[in-house]
């Protein structure tokens, strides 16, 4: 009779309880350290003015107040552009950019990863090379392109560059490689065309990757100020209006702290909502058929 010393029972008991406890406390300490900036922004938004200028600085608020948010609302109300207009601009630009990036990146990734055509490998390398360019480097080329085609000072000046972000195509291509080729071939045998295969077979399987890409894009689109692409005040996004409060000097320190919390909450809420799918994307992105 032979005994397997590497049985599942021996593996299950190979770690002691104190080893698990140490791992737990280490991870808990790292999580707490990571959450400190978020906690500080939250507590600062509720600090009265006298607590903001204490030295040494106080981490937690002693007398919480809503005066900072009231000041923020008062300052925004003095603008000649309605606050709802800034909110609409940001929501439209963000949703349009995320939707366009997800559909174009996922459909293009299906063609690149699941179809054989000349130049396929060169195109994949070009996508990887495009990831090395910093967003700051491509600002001027983006402006020249948008100016040439005549869409500066429009919503599309911010939407089209977001749709063409190479990280979206790279992420979708990596996740697409986990979908079996036999599944695509079976759909083709059943008589479906490329569009039907994409919407009925491929896109439902890409939901975790789509949410991950949505989180990454939402953060950049939500915090955009329009830059040199948007000059009309009526088309400026919300972050532009709120950034003007931050530039108001020491007198607007309280309102600026409230602005920081307001701009932080939507991306954080979207990330929490999609966290499970993001983890699933990271877990399966390296698995090949």
What does this structure look like?
This protein is mostly helical and 289 residues long. The protein has a domain at 83-284: MetI-like fold (Orthogonal Bundle), CATH 1.10.3720.10. Helix content is 69%, strand content 0%. The protein is built from 14 helices and no strands. It has helices at 8-12, 17-45, 49-52, 67-77, 83-114, 120-130, 139-148, 156-163, 166-176, 181-189, 194-205, 207-222, 238-246, 253-284. α5 packs parallel to α8 (156-163), α5 (83-114) runs antiparallel to α12 and α6 (120-130) crosses α9. The longest helix is centred in the middle third of the chain and has 32 residues, at 83-114.
How do the helices and strands line up, and which of them pair or pack?
Blueprint: H1 8-12, H2 17-45, H3 49-52, H4 67-77, H5 83-114, H6 120-130, H7 139-148, H8 156-163, H9 166-176, H10 181-189, H11 194-205, H12 207-222, H13 238-246, H14 253-284
Helix pairs in contact: 2-14, 4-14, 5-8, 5-9, 5-12, 5-13, 6-9, 10-11, 12-14, 13-14
Low-confidence spans: 5-13
CATH topology of the domain at 83-284: MetI-like fold
CATH level-4 homologous superfamily of the domain at 83-284:
MetI-like
Termini separation: 38 Å
Which percent range fits the helix content? 55-70%
Quickly count the helices.
14
Biggest β-sheet: count, sense, barrel? Answer: none
Task: Kindly provide the name of the CATH class of the domain at 83-284.
Answer: Mainly Alpha
